[in-house]
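Subject: for your reference before the review

Hello V.,

The reviewers asked for a structural picture of the protein, and I figured it would be easier to keep everything in one thread rather than splitting it across files. Below is the amino acid sequence we used in the manuscript, unchanged from the supplementary table.
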Amino acid sequence: MWMSECFVMLGIMAQYYQTTSPIIPGSNYAEVRRKALIYYSSIEKQTKRRPYIRSVYFKKQKIFFDYFWIHLAQKSANKEKMRRLKLLAAGVELIKYSPHIFSVEENRNKRSEMLYRFLGKTCTGQLFFAQVKENTKTGHKYLMSIFLKE
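And here is what came back from the structure prediction:
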């Protein structure tokens, strides 16, 4: 459900999407990873090829998960991986249903890429971001990361 409520953040007004998906429970990385993979497998089963979700903001275009798992594997600490995996269900819901974006910027390292950040609030009241990368040459979009706002 969309929250029309706004809040002041860094001197600007920003809207966030209130998710209904719970944070994945668990006290260690292996437990959270197992539950996250069960959730991800439900997304995988919806297609015969590469798993994807469709986003309201991008007019129902596909968002692929290719870079999410690569980016997660690059994190060195299991604690950081666990924090991000716990938000997987909420982040997927945020990208699927949020009609608003928090920020859009060109990738400083690669000019042919745009980075989109969605702002959401979990059912427990924590603010988080979901970042999507778009290759402007091909138009393909990829879920990059999901992380808490600090």
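For the response letter, the relevant points are probably these. The beta strands are 2-9, 12-18, 52-55, 61-64, 103-106, 113-121, 127-135, 141-148. Residues 29-44 form the longest helix (16 residues).

Happy to draft the paragraph if you're swamped.

O.
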